[in-house]
Design brief:
This protein is mostly beta strands. The chain contains four helices and 18 strands. It has a single domain, classed as Fumarylacetoacetate hydrolase, domain 2, CATH 3.90.850.10. The strands form four sheets. Strands 3, 4, 5, 8, 9, 11, 12 and 15 form an eight-stranded mixed sheet that branches. The structure holds manganese (II) ion.
């Protein structure tokens, strides 16, 4: 007998198949220009938060405007899919399955309140439909441009090489906090230009060479 609601979140893989998702990790601040716009110190070590695996939204879906916020924000991000588990990783490359474009949707008003009151970020970051993702492309990824448009107008743009902590460094840091396993996704942080996403708007994240991650907020 199985009690409860059984969910098996997964992401499309380019060329066929599905990537079964275990956990979703996110890097808090990882581009100097975004750290500056949020008022932080870029010398801080990376920090992490999580989203539930069932918060995933496949590219092309439409979502309702989230409850309990007046300030839904977009965050364009590169997503790393882990294909081989490990703890205390020192050589990250063999642990990477592939890469995807993603959007770390954020209730910015609740995040600001949580920061001010020194409360957890869970309800600001880990709400329903908060992890938008495009298809995963297996294999390595060189430097590429990460960009985001809202209704076709560009709002965010950066080279991936502008990350403060590189993908291998992020994987190594995170694997010292938790054991990573195949199926884990890591949202690697967003560059400057975060801003509101309104009812009726369509938001697309692109990483050159990868499938886009598009989401539409219902009117
Ligand atoms: Mn983010």
């Amino acid at each position: 007998m199985l009690y409860g609601w059984r969910v098996s979140p997964s992401v499309a893989v380019e060329g066929g198949g599905r990537f079964a998702v275990r956990r979703i990790f996110c890097v808090g601040r990882n581009y100097a220009d975004h750290v500056a716009e949020m008022g932080g110190d870029q010398r801080d070590p990376p920090f992490f938060f999580t989203k539930p695996a069932d918060a995933l939204v496949s590219s092309g879906e439409a979502i309702p405007y989230p409850t309990a916020t007046q300030n839904l924000h977009h965050e364009a991000e590169l997503v790393v899919a882990i294909g081989l588990g490990g703890a205390d990783i020192t050589d990250a490359a063999p642990h990477v399955f592939g890469y995807a474009a993603g959007n770390d949707l954020t209730r910015r008003d609740l995040q600001a309140e949580a920061k001010a009151l020194r409360r957890p970020w869970d309800m600001a970051k880990g709400f329903d439909n908060s992890a938008v993702i495009g298809a995963i492309r297996p294999g390595p990824l060189g430097d590429a441009r990460l960009a985001l448009t809202v209704d076709g107008e560009e709002r965010q743009s950066s080279l991936l090489s502008m990350m403060i902590w590189s993908v291998p460094e992020v994987i190594c840091h995170l694997s010292r906090l938790v054991r990573l396993e195949a199926g884990d996704l890591i949202y690697t942080g967003t560059p400057a230009g975060v801003g509101p996403l309104l009812r009726g708007q369509t938001c697309t994240v692109t990483v050159a060479g990868l499938s886009p991650a598009t989401v539409t907020v219902l009117p």
